[in-house]
Amino acid sequence: MTTIKDIAKAAGVSVTTVSRALNGYSDVNEKTRKKIIEISKELNYSPNILARGLVMNKSKTIGLLVSGFNKESIKDNFTFEVLSGINQYAAETDYDLVLFNTTSTKQREKTYAQLCRERRVDGVILQGIKTDDPYLQEVVESNIPCVLIDIPIQTENVGFVTTDNIAGAKSAVRYLIELGHKNIAMVNGHDLAFVSQERLEGYKRALSEAGLSFRKELVINGAFEEGKSEEVTHKLLNDYPEVTAVFCASDLMALGSIKAAGKSGRKVPESLSVIGYDDILLSSYVSPSLTTIAQNKQQLGFHAAQQLIEMLEKESAPAHIILETELKIRQSTAGI
Amino acid sequence: MTTIKDIAKAAGVSVTTVSRALNGYSDVNEKTRKKIIEISKELNYSPNILARGLVMNKSKTIGLLVSGFNKESIKDNFTFEVLSGINQYAAETDYDLVLFNTTSTKQREKTYAQLCRERRVDGVILQGIKTDDPYLQEVVESNIPCVLIDIPIQTENVGFVTTDNIAGAKSAVRYLIELGHKNIAMVNGHDLAFVSQERLEGYKRALSEAGLSFRKELVINGAFEEGKSEEVTHKLLNDYPEVTAVFCASDLMALGSIKAAGKSGRKVPESLSVIGYDDILLSSYVSPSLTTIAQNKQQLGFHAAQQLIEMLEKESAPAHIILETELKIRQSTAGI
DNA sequence: CTGAAAGCGCTAACAT
DNA sequence: ATGTTAGCGCTTTCAG
What we know:
The structure is a homodimer.
Chain A: H1 4-11, H2 15-22, H3 30-42, H4 49-56, E1 61-66, H5 72-75, H6 78-90, E2 96-101, H7 112-119, E3 123-127, H8 134-141, E4 146-149, E5 158-163, H9 165-178, E6 184-188, H10 194-209, E7 219-221, H11 226-239, E8 245-248, H12 251-263, E9 273-278, E10 291-294, H13 297-314, E11 320-323, E12 326-328
Parallel strand pairs in A: 1-2, 1-3, 3-4, 4-5, 5-11, 6-7, 6-8, 8-9, 9-10
Antiparallel strand pairs in A: 10-12
Chain A binds a DNA duplex through helix 2 and helix 4.
């Protein structure tokens, strides 16, 4: 493996000059630079990024802390799409991505912050972390530049990007109301997800603006899981037969609700309207296809990467970015 | 950021002792070790992995060269599942994953081998690379330990893992034959994919074993894309109305074929049987659900990671691992 | 415009 | 069982 030392020797100059030439400094004779570059090509030189990182105290890598790397998350490939967006932006830069994972096993008892420090990542993107996760606190306090996805924390070195969940949920419920529904239930995720809190708020507001009263017994938690949602929806439809529409905080849960409808003798959309959230791939393929609030997951990742790298490169302040959502009307909803 | 130097000072020993204590060497007094460990915790020490990598000449990272990180690949989340499997294995080790990407832009004109050398990855896993990709050659020749997914190259430092594509394709076609089909077309991917060559071979063998003749005009290429497959299948059904069954080399293409069937006035499975390959998530959700050859993509990744890390740690020789496939009978196929 | 020298944090002979 | 020393490959003052 050739080093700048080898090049220096071959070119008859010092390592300093080689370093400067290769890094595009101006104070080096063009002739020497040309020569050095030529030699470095001949010798098939690649800089040792570890050595550079050691002395410069930065690694040109950004760490990815995603919790959704398991079988569960393959269904809604939220994580993957976010990743794809991050990658898309990062590809245009000279940053590489390192994947940390949360599967806490015996051998891997290190905390996130430790992981980040060890690897000397320049910054971190967090995704899929619950609001009460101790790691979250840790990372936020660690003063590593950091961008959170769907968690609204902003500090001196932490920014975030999310979608407008209140508006999204509101437009979903408003649409159901426009269709004539009056008894609208909600299948939420869980209380520890920021997006759940927001979507609940949107649900409430839409009801209130339409002069409908909020009944907390019509809001149930489906844990963001298809099966759990099926279970709780089934019970709900039994207990409150007046319900004619369900707003689900995720498409996966909407799929579960639709199954539950079948078990309860309801037909979607004729005797029950179901609207989801996310617009995962499955939504347009299932039958009936799912009316849903679409959020652009790739954009989420893209903007997160962009923001982080701008914090790193331009020392810009952490920001909060709120992306818009879009109502996609398909077949799972109908007028009453 | 605390270093072993700080710890050494605090403990009144030399850095060597600290290094040895922390790395679990036996030749250090238990008392001193305890003290050192305690102090290192107090000081919230994390080793600088770059420094360690520099001197040890290894980085404890493995590089991921995947080509499927774009919008296309979100549909069949093959890439994601493989990644998930890799991650699953890696999580149990102290290796981290770094994601390289292929989006060749101006700024990123480095070759894979360069990327790997720069980052000093200890090994690489390649996925989604075409057989004629110059990078493939480069990496194989670079003598970096490497595991290929679905490309059967085995050298001194290159192993691979794949599924038994011949057997898989054969069982798909054999199943169609058992259903009574005689005129069976095949929508293949493209010639530059190893799996396509294998699956074609399986198709031929199944025909031959059943005494059916191979007609090369019934084999068309769908480029592994849904839209392309729809297009070519449409034409095929038009030109050869005697065809009653189609074997597709991927589920995504099977989805396209089913659409084409609709356009051609064929009903699946009543007047056209379609069988896919992969068993992507969509397959069980679409209607009619897709009969297909399932391959375990997570296993693919898992075994790749396992093999690579064993090459790295135990210096075991590169191997080739062939995983089994499974016929999943659903609704898109029927007897004639 | 170029070079000498120091040092980033760590490990590894080689003493002792 | 512990310390001394050298060095991994690179960047960066500081002097010419």
